[in-house]
Amino acid sequence: MKKIKYIAFLLLGVFAISCSDDMLNKLPEDEISPEQYWKTPNDLALFLNQFYTTFPVHSGWNGGIFEFDNNSDNLADVSINTRFVGSNTTAPTSDGNWNGNYSNIRNVNYYLENSATAEGPTDLIEAYNGEAYFFRAMFYFELLQRFGGVPYIDKVLNTDSPELMSARMPRNELATKIIEDLDRAIAMLQPKASTEAFRVHRGMALALKSNVALYEGTWEKYHEGSAFAAPVNESAKFLQLAADAAETLINEGNYALYNNGEDNTYWDLFTKVDYSNISEVMFWKKYDVNEGVEHKVGHYIPQNGAGTGVTKSLVDSYLSIDGQPIGVSPLYNPSQESSLSDIVVNRDPRLAQTICTPGDLITERAGNDDIFFEYPTFRENNEVVSTTGYQIYKGGSTDEEQRYNSFIGAIIYRYAEVLLNYAEAKAELGTLTQGDLDKSINLLRARVGMPSLTIAPVADPNKAFPGVSDLINEIRRERRVELALEGKRFDDLMRWKADHLIIGKRHQGFKIIGSDMEAEFQDLIGNSILVNDEGYMDPYINAVPAGFGFNPSRDYLSAIPSEQIVLTNGAVTQNPGWE
After folding, report:
1. Which DSSP category does 320 fall into?
2. 318, 478 contact by CB (below 8 A)
3. Which of 166, 212, 248, 569 has the most CB atoms less than 10 A away?
4. What contacts 575, CB < 8 A, 6 or more positions away?
5. Is the model's pLDDT at 350 over the cut of 90?
6. pLDDT at site 224
7. 131: how many CB neighbours lie within 10 A of its CB?
8. What b-and-e string marks burial along 389-413, b requiring 16 or more CB atoms within 10 Å of the CB?
9. How far apart, in whole angstroms, are the C-alpha atoms of residue 528 and residue 526?
10. How far is CA 494 from the centre of its chain?
């Protein structure tokens, strides 16, 4: 019995401070019994509030959401990503992502088993129940992305429940369960306009459904035949669900891309203090420095290097303004690589609004002493160093008041991603039309003045994904560019089975040798500024001289915590490569 109780604590995340028999046989101390609670809609709302703290948002001393791509080929952090390096070879005993998500799932299940006793307006109670289904889907999706199929628990367990020994549900079945929860949420939730501010609404559930279905559909398609494949390939089913969810959102017409009518629209989108009236932003977190709710994004980005840097790989992915890849466009000259000013000339305007270029306004002051970007920050201080010379500009407010204590909002869901999901899902299904492109990706391109994407795009001699069509390559490029630095890239690489972009590679940066910055930083080159034989900044050249050692037989999924395997007597099995 003692062992079973320990399993309950670890697998389900029971909120107990001690492991005494008495404590484990009681409700968690931060829960209230049905006799005391679950009477009004407000009781439901207060219980659900705990889950809102789990959204990815800006945090204290870093660059917030704009550093979320540090785990990908978009940014080169001062700390090398161990997943890319392949240095993690042993399964951990425990894992915070596993325990944390199961703890949240357990609390959602507790809510769903008790909320029926609340009395009040039916539509309001249903909306709160819809929130619960949304969050359970979100937590299981996080587990699916990290671990693949996991035990599926949809009720509160006792210490002797047989489900404590549940085996892992196959990933395609788990994804179906997640979609079912989201369908419940979609049916119960109200539109954003009818929902209290900063609460989950129907549009979010549709957006998450498109994310989940696209992720699973492409995972099953590209991992088919590998150790990470689903036992039954249902990729077409999930891709159609992704397209349908995204198209529903598009056709309902409740959201539209932000446009301020100026040349800096894309950059401006990520600098708002208040997103209440920005139709593209479906959900966001508000900050208020007067209430002590603040972050340091304005300090680190772009005042300093933020301990990271945009990679050459990302910079090279931006098209020329004629809509052609730089490898074929007559508007691009490789000599542009040697100047931060020139690198953005005749390029997709989103590049100049994502990286700092000389003359960019950094801080606007009341007098005549505004601060403008001149050079990247190359200090021997990991807190502020620019690792690649391509310093982040996206997300950096020019408001002097936010130079140290920032309060720009954190975008959590935005409509642009839904448009990208729609185009990708349709392309993967082979049903994409020019009309589909015109109501999705070409709206994103039009916002920044770029030519439309056609069904037969110009072939890129350097295309990132040789194994798929030119059209899918361009849709993936658009996704990378539009969502750059927003934390989407790693999951994209994993679901596309794109280890060829990782293995043996190193993040490179600006071509500083022969550049207009070489003389300025001559004393640092070869010391704090590491370069390769071609003159490009190469921050990991000493740390991983042979390039990243990502193991494609192991590193697509994280290890199942070893304690879960032991505590379930092997019912929960280990992921490939971690045995």
Report:
1. B
2. no
3. 212
4. 147, 148, 554, 557, 558, 559, 560
5. yes
6. 98
7. 28
8. bbbbbbbbbbeeebbeebbbbbbbb
9. 7
10. 12
Smallest Cα–Cα separation from 166: which of 177, 148, 153? 153
Kindly list the distances between the CA atom of residue 503 and the CA atoms of 83, 84, 507, 546, 547, in Å, as whole numbers in the listed order: 11, 8, 11, 9, 7
Q: And the tokens for 283?
A: 């959900």
Q: Closest by alpha carbon to 575, among 223, 237, 68?
A: 223
3-class secondary structure, 475: helix
Residue 239 tokens read as: 């891709």
- Whose CA is closest to 387, among 140, 77, 138, 6? 77
Rounded-to-integer distance, Cα 308 and Cα 392, Å: 8
- Between residues 58 and 251, which one has the greater pLDDT? 251
- Pick from 528, 572, 579: which is nearest to 148 by CA? 572
Query: Which of these, 349, 190, 192, lies nearest to 262 by C-alpha position?
Result: 349
Give CA 19 to chain center in angstroms: 35
The residues facing 288 across adjacent strands are 293
Which residue in this structure is represented by tokens 């070409």?
A: 442
Question: 298 falls in which pLDDT band (50, 70, 90)?
Answer: confident
pLDDT in the model for residue 379: 64
Q: Does residue 428 surpass a pLDDT of 60?
A: yes
| Those residues with Cβ within 8 angstroms of residue 468's Cβ, 6 or more apart along the chain or in another chain | none
CB distance 368 to 381 below 8 Å: no
177 confidence band (pLDDT: 50, 70, 90): very high
| Residue 367's pLDDT band (cuts 50, 70, 90) | confident
Average pLDDT value for the chain: 91
Q: Please check the confidence at residue 117 and state whether its pLDDT lies above 80.
A: yes
Task: State the residue for tokens 């001699």.
Answer: 461
Give the DSSP letter of residue 574. Answer: P
Distance CA 428, CA 411 (A): 28
Residues 6+ positions from 384 with CB-CB distance below 8 Å: 300, 304, 305, 306, 307, 377
The helix or strand, by DSSP H or E, that contains position 482, with its residue range, turns out to be: helix 470-482
Residue type, 375: Y
Q: Residue 405 — very low, low, confident or very high, per pLDDT cuts 50/70/90?
A: confident
What average pLDDT does the segment 264-268 reach?
A: 97
The DSSP code sequence of 225-292 is TSTT--SS--HHHHHHHHHHHHHHHHHHT-------SSTTHHHHHTT-S--TT-TTEEEEE--BGGGT
Q: Give me 303's structure tokens.
A: 């005042």
pTM for the full predicted model = 0.93
How far apart CA 419 and CA 440 sit, in angstroms, is 5
Instruction: Locate 43 and state its tokens.
Output: 């009781």
Distance CA 404, CA 100 (A): 32
d(CA 517, CA 223): 44
Question: Which residues sit opposite 192 in a β-bridge?
Answer: none
